[in-house]
Amino acid sequence: MDKRLAGLPWGAPVNFLGLPEADAPSFDDAGVVILPVPYEATVSYMGGTRFGPRRLLEASRYIELYDHELDAEPHTIGVHTLPELHLSGAGPERALAELREAFDALVAADKLVIMLGGEHSISAPPIEAHAQRLGGRRLSVLQLDAHGDLRAEYEGTPFSHACVMYRVHQLVDLVPVGIRAITAEERQLLRARKIPVIFGHELDAQGAWIDRALAALGPDVYITIDIDFFDPSVVPATGTPEPGGGTWYPTLRLLERVFTERRVVGVDVVELAPIPGVVAPDFLAAKLVYKLVAYQQRARRARGG
């Protein structure tokens, strides 16, 4: 930038945390990469998830960079924010194929990518890409969600947000947590496949469910967080809210342990549908992403990275 322009009161960049250019590393130098994917095509109740990534990024500009719980500044791991990825409007099959192509390249770069959605259907391509990269090892998927998303088809397409876990369930070991809205057919599939589901009503204060979730996960884990996992009294800004669900600190305890005791290969946070004038859910989602960055930083340091 020209020296005459550098001193002007520019607004914060549109990146995660609003980091100044000097503090925002290049893609090659970053430890964590943020990928916004404002895709919305198959939502079945309230819309708005396409606005989720941008609102999350805007809210992240007001996060304190110092984390008092971890006594660290997690952004020093190096956080690079990619531009929004705008997928094809030629239908969900084509759009998700484009996203898979992008993730084949991102996975090869060996970065922890945190994808911001957008509707939940976008979780399938990164899960498939990571599972393929592991070769003979089995990938575990920790699914924090209110819904099973195990329908073979919904509203005429197998690429719906309601089908995302069905599309990958034979490829990976699913560990769904917080589920409180499923069909009878989905319940039968959970039993038939012996998927170790933890229902919403089992999220007790004692935290025994956290041990159960950890025990069901293998060494390599992909985390998909549908924001409707949280109780709607905490996060009302989602298209399909369900009573009950997760709260802040128990959820963090689970995620912290997963990063500490397993190798997290990728993460997504999806289904934030912002409500005009209600900013708390946007900030919660942004703070949640920063916590994931923090846990990755600590895990990498523990491994000597």
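The record above closes out task 2.4. Task 2.5 opens with a second protein, given below.
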Amino acid sequence: EEAVAQAMVTPSEQVLEQLIKDCVGTKVHPNHFHLFKARHTLLQLYGRTSEVFSSEVWKKKEKMCQEFLDLCYLLDPGLARLGPYAGVALYEYEDAVMIRVQKLASKEYYDQKVVDQGIAIAKSLLQKCIKTLQDEPEDQPEGKLKIIAQKKLTEIGLLTSKDQKS
């Protein structure tokens, strides 16, 4: 608990990754709540603190989001208690997917079907995020995130409908 609290004072990708690595299996169970909190913070840091959002970073972010969400659904299938955590993870997961899609689409030769599948996944993640955070008060961080996710979903819808008309 003390190690996590100390790491959270000024969290960084490197500090949290090392904390998780040092604690998993030696000090606590991999799914211990304190590591759960550390992972929740880490998945939000990926791509935000790095100068370049490299493919290695977004792959780590996507994987961590998947694993984090799997754990949320395992511990709380209806997300009655872990909804805010899952909502943030869904939003961050969508962010990583869209970065990947943008990188794919920026290549000279790309597979439109793969790009379309990525966009469909991103839309689905945003819809799940909005649904998960639907009861969060709009003056709270999770409620504000729900509003941002709704706007982002609208923007993606507008972009895809514009592409289909072209």
